[in-house]
Amino acid sequence: MRAALSGATLIMAGALLAGCQTSNTSDMIRLDRAQGSEENIASLSAVIQSNPQDPDAYNVRGTAYGRAGEFRRALDDFNRALQINPRFYQAYANRALVYRNMGKPAEAVNDYNAALQINPNYDVALIGRGNIYRQAGRTNEAFNDFNRAIQAETTDGRAWHGRGLIYQLRNQHAQAIEDFSKAISLSPSSPEPYNGRGISYLALNDDENAFADFNHAIDLNDKLAESWANQALVYERRGEKDKAAKAYNHAARLDPRYQPAQDGLARTRGAATDG
User: Fold this and answer.
1) What residue spans carry the region label Disordered (predicted)?
2) Entry pTM
């Protein structure tokens, strides 16, 4: 391992750390063509038609609408489910996730609060609220929510991933690596904790393990700009500017708004082009 980070490399790592802190969306609704398909929604509608007072049916169809990106219809279904059963804490948490996807974090927090008033140990609501707090810079509150979910014996890797990101912000990288490793053991197909752990490895000058994590994140999902920019940083630290430029360029093409990729490309521009 290297003895110390140079000033320029420290700035680069800090920029990627900032990107890692803000780009994670693993707790957001991911559009799912299967679950949000017209056929699936039609079958759920048939269930509701046969039993219009079943809150579970509205909750499930609301989730399907959310995965299809039909957020207004999703809200209508969750509202109906809660009218039928005001203590349906899962529906509050599902509606919160839709609000978050709509860019309404205050409404989302209100719904997570409502879910937790009914079930104080509901890990989905703790993790969801924790991620909103973390992205708002309310790191102590976020840390407490992730801790509560972990103490409630959640099996959701996002709790450890979220807490790891906060340890990382606090420069407690050994603890962060432990949490990211736990997240990976629970969610091995998710690239986010590999990126998070790699950044902490970089902070500890363990480039070899960092590079392995970034490459594995790319293997899991080669459409994330963050993973390519992270890989590029290792190449840049090694002095392999041509490979770094290609990776930064690829990251910038995947997400032109991802600032660490743009900054890295500016540093290495001219070394190579992305073919």
Assistant:
1) 253-275
2) 0.85
Show the domain range for 142: 120-187
What would the two tokens of residue 164 be? 């790891």
Report how many domains make up the chain: 3
Helix (H, G, I), strand (E, B) or coil at 4: coil
Residue 75 placed within a domain: yes
Would the CA dihedral through 161, 29, 21, 267 be positive or negative?
Answer: positive
Domain boundary among 187, 204, 232: 187
Label residues 238-267 b or e (16+ Cβ within 10 Å = b): eebbebbbbbbbbbbebbeebebbbbbbee
**Does residue 254 belong to any structural domain of this protein?**
yes
pLDDT at position 20: 54
Q: What's the whole-number average pLDDT of the chain?
A: 89
DSSP classification of residue 179: H
Phi, psi of 221 (to 5 degrees): -155, 105
The answer as to whether 275 is a domain residue is no
Same domain, 77 and 155: no
Query: Which of 167, 239, 263 shows the shortest CA–CA distance to 248?
Result: 263
Higher-pLDDT residue of 226 and 271 is 226
